[in-house]
Amino acid sequence: MFSTAFFTAAACGLFASGVNAHMVIRNPVPYGADSLTNSPLAADGSDFPCKQRSGVYDVTKMNTIAVGSPQTLSFKGSAVHGGGSCQLSITMDKQPTKSSQWKVIHSIEGGCPANATGNLPENPNGLDAATFNWQMPAGMPNGEYTLAWTWFNKIGNREMYMNCAPITVTGGSNSKDAMQALPDMFQANIGNGCTTVENEDLVFPNPGKFVQEGGSDLGSSLVGNCGAAAAPTGYSGGSGSGSGSSPASSSAAAPTGYNGGGAASSPPGYNGGGNSPVAAPKGGYGGGNGSGAAPSSVAAPSATERPGSGSGPGPGNNMSTTYDIVTVTTMATVTGAGPAPTGSDGSSSGGGSPVSYSGSQLSSGSTGTCTGGSVACDTPGSIICIGAGQFGLCDINNCAVPQALAGDTRCNANVIARRAKYLTHIKRKLKHNVRL
User: Where is this region: Disordered (predicted)?
Assistant: First the structure.
């Protein structure tokens, strides 16, 4: 017969095996790589931020990040817990504390760190999870500070993972305005009264300026008091004093988005680290240029620029919001245009890509005069039908830019009849992206 000690040892071995296969970031190179464990943050948040420990802020390697230059987010491990949703956030603090302010620069809703049913084949040093391309937004301040990767797993215990890395930002601005305009990092499952829900790819309450969607079970369910954790900081309005720097043109460094190991046949630019065909992000930070023609049978999420990213005197109130819908099998995304982003010619390539418009085509102020092909509308924030094959989102200037509907999607009586599940998420996001 087996002894109690044997079963205890066996259980401990299984537990250690699972823990050893959890995920850590491989690139950017994290702080204290030698002391970094792959477990989640403590349930009481005692090791927040950055998994506090001895040597937590030892610089293994300084990561130099040029504004607008493609960067890679990659992982080591195999316990991907069905994927989930991740964010990249930054703080100006070189050694962050609980009082540090974190600002979101990129969100991945679903499929992060891999698009898998459960876990990948166990390997604590495995490199088969997905990789993601991202960019440091234009206008970010130059200097040394800290980047954080946070992850909310889809299946298993309700946890929050967080790894931090030292970064030096170059090619940016001497102003903090662009950074301060970004939303706060979402926090949950660390004793702060907010808990995520299992079996959902979390749709962040305020995902930030650049969002990539790759999940099949998107959901925004939260339990508890999540107001503080999820409250968007939004855009301050007023005249502002922005850096006058716009994002790189859409043709420059368009992210291929989502790459990694996977068993299924995947479209160009994507391997989800799982066993089902999933999306090939279009990339194109705000420009609509695809990174490859994705097959029509799969979704094509994109890293899409949200409001407030253009050049000019700051966020102000001259903000317009566009609303993109793609084909029957693709996800609908919401993008926003701040004051006149440059380098976007509205062109789009790749099957099923949404129609985009440059800043010059958006409404031109609060005078009620709509230019650039936009049409007058009555209620800011509302959707209007422009014929059966087009729609528009009424902006704060009572103008709407015509947007093409793809496939058999139709607009009737100011209602778009397609994929109600995704439209629910869109309406929720519009509340954050349209500042009335």
Answer: 234-260, 281-321, 334-363
